[in-house]
Amino acid sequence: MGKNKLERFAETATFRNVVQLPYYHFSEDYHLKNKWSSDFFGNDHPLFLELGCGKGEYTVGLSRLNPQHNYIGLDIKGARIWRGAKTALENNICNAAFLRIHINQINRFFGKNEVSGLWITFPDPQPQKAKEGKRLTSPEFLERYRLFLKKDAVINLKTDNTGLFEYTLDIIGQKKHMLLNHTFDLYNSDLNNEAGMIQTFYESVFLAEGKKICYLQFILNHLEK
To answer: Out of 3.30.2380.10, 3.40.50.150, 3.40.190.150, 3.50.50.60, which CATH number does the structure's domain 3-11+36-219 have?
Structure first.
């Protein structure tokens, strides 16, 4: 491991806007579950999550655009989280935080009706059929999100991977979720929201290469099972 990465890990451990815990499978709920806004942020503002946040461009960007909301970026890569957390601290952005966990542990950290919306920004598309269950928009993950999302919570997906995008559209149709908006070419569409106002580093690279950015919004169904 490089010296810079070790230094970043050490610095991240001192950041007040980062929660990172020992690397093991959690058998108990985290003490801030259902209390993130009140006990961590010290307010009653709506809470939003960015899954697989990487360097936290969306977590930080959304926090700047919406100071009346709280945002938490989730990722397992500590060196990536360091950048977003440091940017938030340097700019005195108090409504942005970062949580270093595997996404499959998410239900240990967030409780019923605690989260008002999700952003899934350029996730690993997991293209192999055998890894379909690891896609962050798979039915398995959507049911995990249902356990902590409010009923009207909007899920946002932004990706350069057409395969993952089409897969997600198929899942939304099959499971009768409510599709709100979708486009295969965000920056040449009529959509005008935060999705086009914030770009990740890798997104700027994709755009420079001429790739199109896909984007959609949907709400989970609430049909009786």
So the answer is: 3.40.50.150
Q: Give me the numbers of helices (H) and strands (E) for the chain, helices first please.
A: 6, 8
For the annotated catalytic residues, the residue numbers are 124
Express each pLDDT in 76-110 by its tens digit.
988 889 999 999 999 999 999 999 999 999 999 99
| Contact predicate 88/64, CB 8 Å | no
Beta pairing class for 178-183 and 96-100: unpaired
The separation between CA 67 and the C-alpha centre of its own chain, rounded to angstroms, equals: 17
